[in-house]
Amino acid sequence: MGVSKLALVGETTAMNDAVAVGLSSSATYTVTEEMSPPHLPMKVLSTPDMIRLIEQTCLLSVQEYLDDNQTTVGIHVCVSHSASVNAGDDVEVSCEISEVDRKRLVFNTTVTAGDKTVSEGTHQRFVVGG
């Protein structure tokens, strides 16, 4: 493996340079009926499923740069959910690292559906393993 481990508190091991402020990624997902809240008569993207897509996009954006025995876990989410998205429509989830503090990664996140903003906020993940 050519990837170094992220630094622990008090260690001097450098993090892989690719996992740095500015690293960005995006993914497109199709909203399914299963992503809808069960109490609503219309089938729209639920907030928990939107957050799941945000977490998945952030996880996948850095996973390839970590050692095989490392991954990240979500530790904080602060997002809006300001527009509905119908089942069958696509959403694009974008994330960009805005801060790296040892093993803690902070992402700015945006969810859009066409030209409308569905969500904006931040998500934090922590590198575990290794």
Number of DSSP strand runs: 5
CATH topology: Thiol Ester Dehydrase, Chain A
- The low-pLDDT segments are 1-14
What overall geometry do the principal axes of the alpha carbons give? elongated
The helical percent reads 10-25%
- Provide the CATH top-level class: Alpha Beta
- Indicate the mean pLDDT: 90
What is the string of helix and strand elements?
EHEEEE
Under the CATH scheme, which architecture would be assigned?
A: Roll
Number of continuous helical runs? 1
Give the number of domains: 1
Rounded to the nearest angstrom, the distance between the terminal CA atoms is 13 Å
- CATH superfamily grouping: Hotdog Thioesterase
Q: How much strand content do the residues show? A: 35-45%
Alpha-beta classification: mainly beta
Rounded Rg: 16 Å
Task: Output the strand order for the largest sheet.
Answer: 1-3-4-5-2
Main sheet overview: 5 strands, antiparallel
What does this structure look like?
There is one protein chain. With 130 residues, the protein is mainly beta. It has one domain (24-129): Thiol Ester Dehydrase, Chain A. The chain has one helix and five strands; from the N terminus they run βαββββ. It has one helix at 47-63; strands spanning 24-30, 70-79, 90-101, 104-113, 116-129. A five-stranded antiparallel sheet has the order 1-3-4-5-2, with helices on one face. A hairpin with a 2-residue loop joins strand 3 and strand 4. The longest helix has 17 residues, at 47-63. It starts with 23 loop residues before the first strand and ends with a strand. Mean pLDDT is 90; it is low at 1-14.
